[in-house]
């Protein structure tokens, strides 16, 4: 660790925000995840600590009592300087199915016109890249995926929709992502993922973790409908590959 200059500031009386350089960078994310794992294994082992990594920061939350900021800041800076090896969390490559039919991909035609690419070319580009999970938030299970091809970078819609359907796959800036439930939203919608991204009844409500990777693959509407039925009865099997730690 100790690869970057970090800053630490209070985030209310029950939280601290630790920040790395302000850019989207896989190397920074890996450094954050390594430090997060070290904190969990060696420093903040109390189960009441909630540790939330994302993009270029990690938020430390302790709701039992107010945090003594100055004391913890000094400890965090010292811990970050430690050269201690930790067992990295196993990372997964998730292969997620998406139906790009125009009933779901309600912004595909507009994106096609703006990019001067055919819909098939857009789908091919979107499915050919492997994305990194840089953050989970906004909604429980909403995945912020970095690594979008530059030609698919489009600004959020100027007028957000009052309702975006659960499973909608969208583009915004340098990111793609999946809406885990019906929600207002301003991303450009190009398809729908047939796999539920968040299940509050499951042991792990969100199966994807920050640092994992995602690659989409195209399915037909019939396959989409079948996946939805399989998911509802609990027999759908996610496609995943275990990556080196």
UniProtKB/TrEMBL annotation:
EC number(s) recorded for this UniProt protein: 3.5.2.9
Q: Organism source for this protein? A: Zobellia amurskyensis
- What this protein is called in its record is 5-oxoprolinase subunit PxpB
A GO molecular function assigned to this protein is:
5-oxoprolinase (ATP-hydrolyzing) activity
Provide the alphabetized UniProt keywords.
ATP-binding, Hydrolase, Nucleotide-binding
Q: Domain of life here?
A: Bacteria
Q: Where is the Carboxyltransferase domain?
A: 6-208
The organism's taxonomic lineage, starting at the top: Bacteria, Pseudomonadati, Bacteroidota, Flavobacteriia, Flavobacteriales
